[in-house]
Every structure is written in C-alpha cells, then in structure tokens.
Specification:
Layout: H1 5-14, H2 18-39, H3 43-60, H4 71-91, H5 118-126, H6 130-140, H7 146-153, H8 157-182
Helix pairs in contact: 1-2, 2-3, 2-4, 3-4, 6-8, 7-8
C-alpha cells in the first residue's frame, strides 16, 4: 500500500468516484497548462489541447500502470505533449521553417538564465516562432534527441538541429536585450 495521493485518486476514479476526477484535474491542471503553453502561443489552443488531453487521460486511466510517486504526472505529461504535437501537426505549423534574422554564431553555449525571472523566460520561449519553439521544448524539456524529434514531427534531423540552434540564438538575443533594459 502506498501513501501517494495520486495513487489513491486513480483508485477512486477506477472505483467510480466522480469527485476524484475533479481532484485529479485540479491537482494537475496548472502543471499541464504550463507544459502546453511551452508549445502553443495561443491561450485558446492551450485550452483546446488541455480539454482533449484530459478526456484522453480519463478514458485511458484503466490502462495506466502505477510505478511509484510521479509516474501519474509523467504519464499525463506524455499524453499532453503528444496531444499538443498532434494539434501542431494538424495545423502544419511545425513544418513552416521561419528564418529569423539571427547571426548563426550568436550562441556558443547555453545562455545564462539565472537572473531571468521564470515568467519572463517562459514568455520568451512562448514567443519563439512555432517550429523553433516546438523543437526547443522537445529537446530541452522532454529530453528528446534530434532523431526522435525528427521522427515525431516528420522533419529531418538536420532541420531539427537547425531549428534548435536558431531557437537558442534567438533566445540568447532576447535575453541580452532584456538584461540591457532591466539590469
């Protein structure tokens, strides 16, 4: 037996407790909304994907295999990311390669973000062009390789790497500008 609250919520839902569905939703909606908004710039798109994701989560919960604390959130995150990518593929936004005016040598390493407030950094990421933002998030937050990203998005590995490099350069440029104006 476990003391993990998520485990008990899942068991309650499986036993037909409808209030446990609301508990699950309220417990995880903020985190999953943040995951969605890393990929989608429109709040309406985020709401649509979250609704679809939760419907899929609830209808698939009988197939969820509890593997310890955090396993439910990881499983729900995977479903939400997949639904987000499906939404992006449906609109074909990830295939539009946008060429921003950035120097290719603008970033040699990882941009230092320690002094950047999280909400500001999140906004900078959210404002990246669709293709850049999608590849950046998959690489950085979901820890996917360029090969995996290419397969997921139907693009080449080189395109994935290029999109990531350009996203990083654009972020570095925006971080420099923010520092000049705010520090």
């Amino acid at each position: 037996m476990t003391n993990d609250r998520d485990y008990h919520i899942v068991q309650s839902i499986r036993n037909g407790d409808r209030s446990a569905m609301a508990d699950l939703y309220h417990r995880h909606i903020g985190y999953l909304a943040a995951v969605c908004s890393r990929y989608l710039s429109s709040d309406e798109d985020v709401k649509d994907v979250l609704q679809t994701s939760f419907l899929k989560i609830l209808s698939s919960l009988d197939r969820f295999d509890y593997r310890g604390q955090g396993s439910l959130r990881a499983w729900m995150t995977r479903i939400t990311v997949n639904e987000t990518l499906k939404s992006l593929r449906g609109s074909d936004r990830t295939r539009r390669l946008q060429d921003a005016c950035i120097r290719e040598d603008a970033v040699d390493g990882e941009p230092d973000t320690e002094d950047i407030p999280q909400d500001v950094l999140h906004k900078m990421i959210r404002e990246l062009p669709d293709g850049y933002r999608t590849v950046f998030n998959l690489y950085v937050f979901e820890e996917k390789s360029h090969r995996e990203i290419a397969s997921m998005l139907g693009i080449s590995e080189g395109t994935s790497a290029s999109q990531f490099h350009r996203a990083k350069a654009l972020l570095a440029s925006r971080i420099r500008k923010w520092r000049e104006q705010n520090l």
